[in-house]
Structure formats: structure tokens, C-alpha cells
Amino acid sequence: MQLPAFRNEPLTDFSKPEQQQAFAKALATIEQGLGRTWPSWIGGEEVVAKETFDNHDPGEVSRRIGRYQKLTADDGKRAVEAAHAAFPAWAERPMAQRTEIFFATARKLRERKHLFSAMLVFEVGKSWAEADADTAEAIDFLDYYAGLAVRLAQPQPVTPVPGERNQMLYIPLGVGVVIPPWNFPLAICVGMTAAALVTGNTVVLKPASQSPAIAGMFVELLYECGLPRPVLNFVTGPGSVLGAALVQHKLTRFISFTGSRDTGLWIFEQASKTQPGQIWLKRLVAEMGGKDSILIDQECNLDAAVDAVVASAFGYQGQKCSACSRAIVHQQVYDEFLKRLLPKVQALKQGHPKDRGNAIGPVVDASSKNKTLEYIDIGRKEGRLLTGGGVAPGNGYYVQPTVIADVPPKARISQEEIFGPVLAVIKVQDFAQGLEVANNTEYGLTGSVYTTNDQHKELAKQRFHVGNFYINRKCTGALVGGHPFGGFNMSGTDSKAGGPDYLLQFVQAKTVSEKVG
Ligand code: NAD
Fold first, then answer.
1. pTM of full prediction above 0.90
2. Best substitution site from 68, 260, 468 to test ligand 1's pocket, by max atoms within 8 Å of Cβ?
3. Is 22 exposed, middle or buried, given 0-12, 13-18 or 19+ CB atoms closer than 10 A?
4. Distance in angstroms (rounded) separating the CA atoms of residues 51 and 56
5. Which residues touch 164 (CB under 8 Å, ≥6 apart)?
6. From the CA of 255, how far away is ligand 1's center (Å)?
7. Which of 123, 287, 382, 417 does the annotation list as catalytic?
8. What is the pLDDT of residue 463?
9. pLDDT at 488
């Protein structure tokens, strides 16, 4: 099968009036359809539960996004069993038939990209540009993993043995439980689900309760593009009850999780417990939190560094696992850095993200808002509040972009993931101390240095211990294919999503040796 070379989906140029109009139209279409009651799907059938739950626009809490089925642990068990029943037929499908469904889904998603992005604006408070990037990444994952799967199905290299015909084949694992977070509720949900399915596994997908509508739109798209419904089971409900039942089921063969450190650790522990009747070791792909830094050297392009810090710290309100939550700055440029940073942060326009001019929207829910404000209070005591520090106007969960300077390297706001628009600025004596501080948390996801000193670049390349390390570039915005993504230490299993090895986590290798002659 001849494949076109993979190319990243281009981002939309919203400075063009025709794109502005197209996006405004998509926002209006999505807004009109909000409030829908979504079913779950188990074994190809729609499931309606006794209880439901709602979610609301975090930027305008009077706007209901949707109503969802609040499934129980028993429903979760049924979903795993349905996926198990659907597994043999799906696993036996020729790879070319499976991949065509995902290529087709990528094409359809490209056609309807503004509609999906518009849902992200309302459901999780993304700005136009952030929503557009999330959808572009989702398209990329579909194309990229379908292309990789084609390669995985080709003969694998084995050393010839005289008198034998030997092969190594990659075969699917079984039922995968896919548990994505709400912060990239399309891209990460699509990536984890597509990787598991295209390799021949069946899936139970449980989206985060803050973002089930966008996940439902994706599931409907896959069904429309020919995915047999029993192959992908879509269940909604509380992670602590429903998610736990999925993780613990004896027929669950693997879990693909992206979310917080604490949930990841809990799942890690649960996955390691064999249930009565379980005949395998569950596999776990877990991508977790971050506490990411940009280290700014004495010799650097300071304006570029400031711009990178602003974009990485406050893009999507700091709610990215890769967000820059610490700027570690050389003492020689520290004061100048703060002087140039402040006006740029204060110029960020905040408000409902459906207005294109608003770069900063709300955080995702009340608990995120409260948590961020609590950390700001801690930060006021640990450092010097420079800007922000409170709520912003609007009928939603708006927290001002906040900068706290003079933060000691071991302070809580320097160590714990906040996941909101809060930047800690730390002063260091020299580059070597900067690297030590950069490595002083339990996480190891992304990081960046700004320096023009080649020796320092080399040193940082060796010592800055993160899964995604950047030089003279912001620490967010990894591209599928170009920046395989995943972290070290408590940031997870370093699965490298969007990288050439990613699919190996969803298959097992079978060696077949035949005596000949
Ligand atoms: P979360 O851990 O609260 O939830 C993630 C998912 O786990 C949700 O679907 C939730 O319903 C489910 N869940 C919760 N408890 C569960 C349980 N006991 N059993 C099974 N499932 C359960 O995380 P979140 O708030 O949705 O996402 C934010 C976190 O995700 C941040 O820590 C962020 O850094 C991390 N993240 C990491 C990456 C990465 O690639 N490393 C990417 C995006 C987000």
C-alpha cells in the first residue's frame, strides 16, 4: 500500500476575513445545538441510564453544553464485556480495511474542523487559535497512526535461519480502556482511541466529565466513517466509579490513560492487581502531569524569551501539561526580564473565548478556579505578586493571568502542578544553578532554554531531564510526527505520542518459525 507522506494539518489563519466568517458561522451552528442529551453506546446499542449529569460552558455558566448518561460500575463491566465480544472479528480484519476507516475519519474531520473547534470553545473554554490547534492535532493523529499501522503490518526484519521460514508479526492485545483528560479533549481522546483501534484492539472510551460532548462528536464521526459500533464503546460517568470499574475488570487487557499524577498512580496500582480469572498482566500507558520550566540564560534573545514564556505560561490559561509554570532566570537579566514580561502579561485580553480578540478565557470548572486561587494565596506568601492574583469579570471561572516573582526553588508553587494561569519566576546565580533548579521537581515533561551560548546548549541537552526539551523555542505546541511527546519520572511512561514507536504499546509481537525443506 503506497502512502502519501505525512504532513501536519496547517493551522487556520484567522487574520483572513473569510476564515473569521467561517468560524463565526461554526460557533453559531454549535451554539444552537447545545443542550443535547447524549446516549452512551455499549455493544453497538444506545444506553440510557437512570441518572444523568450536565456540563456547562466554563466561560458562561448559564449555558448548558449537554446532558450525559451517568453510568454505573455494572454498566462499565458490560462495556468491557461487549468490547471483548467484538474483539476477534475486529482483530482479524485486514489492516488495509481498518486503516481506511481512520484515513476517512481524518478527511471528514478536516472538512468539519471548525464545527469541532467551535465545540471546544464552548465546552472547555479554548480560544479560537487553541481550539483550532487541538482539532488540527486530532486530524494529525488519525493520519499519522493509520500510516504507522500500515507499516506495522508489513514483514518485520528477522535474521535468516537456514532451513526455516521465520516471521515476526504484530498482533493486537484485546480490550483497551481509554481514559483521556479534558484539556485536549479532542486531540488526546482521538490519538489514544485511534492508536488502540487501528492496531486491532477494541475499546471502551470514557471521556472526562468536563468534556463528553466533543468526545461524543468524535465517536459519532467514527461510526459514520464505518467503524463497527461494538468495536468502540462510549461510556460516560464519574471517573472514580465508572473509570475504576473499567480499569479493574479482568477482561481489560490494557489501559491508555492521560491525566493527573494522582489518578495515574492510582490506576498504575490497580492495573497491577490481578483479578480472579485474569490471565495476563495489564499493560498501562500513562501520561501524567508536569511542572515545566523555561530557563533564561544571561546571553539570549530576551524579547524572544519573554514572548515564549507568555505564550507557554498563559496559552489556554496555563491548562496544558506542557505549560511553562516556572521561568528560571539568570540574575544578570532578571530585572530586565520582569520589566519586559509585565506589560505583555497585562496586555492579554481576557473574556469569553467565542470572541476572537480574547486570548485568555476561563479555567475549566469551579474546582480548577478554587485550586488556582488557593495556589495564588500560597504564592503571595512564598514570593512577590507582580500582576494578577484574583478573579476576572464574567459569568464563568475567570482567573487573571498571574505572575509571582522571587519564588524560592523549593517553594510549593515551584514544585506542585497548578494547572492554571500562574507563573512563578525564580532567580538563579548562573546557568549551572538554573539547570539544577530545572531538574528539582518530581516531574520531567517539557522544558526549554533560551541561550545563544553553544556550550550551554550542549550542557542543557545532556542535563535538562525532560521528555521534550526545546532550545530557543516555547515549551508548548508539540507537533505530531515532529515532536514525539511524553515525559519522564512522575510525568508518566514516556509513551511518545505522535512518535514512530507509539503503536508498539498497543500490540504484541508473535514469532512464527516454520521448518522448510
Ligand atoms: P484527571 O486525572 O482528573 O482525569 C483524567 C481522566 O481520568 C478523566 O477522564 C477522569 O474522569 C478519569 N479518572 C478520574 N479518576 C479515575 C479513576 N479512579 N479511575 C479511572 N479513571 C479516573 O486529570 P484531568 O484534570 O482530566 O487532566 C489534567 C491533568 O492531565 C493534568 O495533570 C495534566 O498535566 C495532565 N495531562 C497530561 C498530558 C501528558 O501528555 N502528559 C496531557 C494532557 C494532560
1. yes
2. 260
3. middle
4. 17
5. 513, 514, 515, 516
6. 13
7. 287
8. 98
9. 98
pLDDT more than 90, % of the chain? 99
Q: Using one digit for the tens of pLDDT, what is the confidence trace for 470-490?
A: 999 999 999 999 999 999 999
List ligand 1's pocket residues with C-beta within 6 A: 179-184, 188, 206, 208-209, 239-240, 243-244, 247, 258-260, 263, 266-267, 287-290, 321, 417, 419, 445, 487, 491-492
Asked whether 186 and 120 are in contact (CB, 8 A), the reply is: yes
Q: Are 55 and 123 in contact (CB under 8 A)?
A: yes
Cα of 179 vs centre of ligand 1, distance in Å, is: 8
- The answer to whether the beta carbons of residues 420 and 318 sit under 8 Å apart is yes
CA dist 190 and 261 (Å) reads 21
Say what the pLDDT of residue 1 is: 62
What was the pLDDT predicted at 517?
82
Q: Residue 15: CB partners within 8 Å, gap ≥ 6?
A: none
pLDDT (0 to 100) of residue 2: 66
pLDDT at 3: 72
Query: Which residue's C-alpha comes closest to atom 11 of ligand 1?
Result: 239
Q: Which residues of the chain have pLDDT under 50?
A: none
pLDDT tens, position by position, 333-375: 999 999 999 999 999 999 999 999 999 999 999 999 999 999 9
Active site residue 300: no
Q: Which of 121, 150, 151, 145 is nearest to 133 (CA)?
A: 121
Out of 189, 225, 300, 321, which one is annotated catalytic? 321
Angle at 171 between CA 140 and CA 188, to 5 degrees: 25
Grid cell 460516560 is found at 236
Q: Is 287 a catalytic residue?
A: yes
Ligand 1 mutation target, pool 321, 491, 502, most atoms within 8 A of CB: 321
Ligand 1: residue of 134, 179, 254 to mutate (most ligand atoms within 8 A of CB) is 179
- What spacing in Å lies between the alpha carbon of 435 and ligand 1's midpoint? 28
